[in-house]
Amino acid sequence: MSRGSAALTAARREEIIAACAELNETMSFREITIKEIGAATSFTRTSIYNYFETKEEIFLALLQKEYELWVDAMNAVMEQNETMTRSEIADTLARTLTDRPRLLRLLSMNLFDMEANSRAERLAEFKVAFGTSLDTVTRMLEKYVPEMDAPARQEFLYAFFPFIYGIYPYTSVTEKQRTAMVQAGIPYVYQSAYDLTFTCLKKLLGVNA
After folding, report:
1. Residue 209: is its pLDDT beyond 70?
2. I need a surface site. Which of 15, 75, 83, 105 has the fewest CB within 10 A?
3. Collapsing DSSP states into helix, strand and coil, what is residue 26?
4. Is 173 within a domain?
5. Are residues 35 and 65 in the same domain?
6. Do 67 and 36 sit in the same domain of this protein?
7. What percentage of the chain reaches a pLDDT higher than 90?
8. What is the pLDDT of residues 15-41, one digit of tens each?
């Protein structure tokens, strides 16, 4: 493949992913189709199949990009700080994560189906980005909390990363959902994504205050 065609392929993939991201601002995963995504690009709908075989592959690529942007933000903080307290680590992780609402929204979707309906090579590309986010958080703990041993770091990761999947649905409640909770006798106490995440991280890191 020539350099020009490789650049064109990359540009068209990015255009498709960007179109999906824009549609997802106002439409649900269920509502968005390949046809809708194609209509938002500068080329024909059938051309999308040269780059992605399913809608799920496009969403998975969008989620991959969001993980990569989160990793970039974490790396930027680590480059600027030689030391951080545990409370500052909690703040950094909470802030860089909740600065990416699209990442949180995508994670609240059915990731199982997204992965199941994507080709192995696309899934592997996504897993690289996910794995890099795990590695980046691990490096942060190694750098700033050197007294935390490997089993403790693993325990942290296996508590924090599953928690991430529930942030969006717990902090983005519709009026219909609020009404239903009131009718069910469940008190709704609003917490921002940052507050919820920061509180969780402080507990995981043993921050008392």
Report:
1. no
2. 83
3. coil
4. no
5. no
6. no
7. 87
8. 999 999 999 999 999 999 999 999 999
Residue with tokens 């990416």: 100
CATH number of the domain that residue 13 is part of: 1.10.10
Tell me, yes or no, whether 107 and 127 share the same domain: yes
Burial code of 49-68, b = ≥16 C-beta within 10 A, e = fewer?
eebbebbbbbbbbbbbbbbe
Let me know: does 62 contact 20? Beta carbons within 8 Å: yes
Which two three-digit tokens encode residue 112?
């199982």
**Residue 13 identity (one-letter amino acid):** R
Q: Which residue has the tokens 């979707």?
A: 109
Instruction: Give how many domains the chain has, as a whole number.
Output: 2
Residues of the domain holding 69: 55-168+196-204
Domain assignment of residue 191, yes or no: no
Residue corresponding to tokens 């390949």: 34
Calpha distance 72→96 (Å, rounded): 9
Q: Which residue has the higher pLDDT, 209 or 69?
A: 69
